[in-house]
Fold:
Amino acid sequence: MLKWQPTVVIDERDTWIGSTVKDYENMALNLQSLLRYIKGQNSIISYYEKCNKEKE
Structure:
C-alpha cells in the first residue's frame, strides 16, 4: 500500500485538506488496488453461494 500524506489546515471555521500530485496518484492507486480486492472477494463469495445452491 502506497503512502498518502495529506496536508491538513484547520482554522476557526474550516478544515482544508491538500495533497501533492504524487500523493493524489498514490491515493488513486490505493483505491484501484482496493477495488480489485473487493471484486476478487465478490467472485469468491459468488462461487461459494453457487456451490451451496447446488447442494440444496
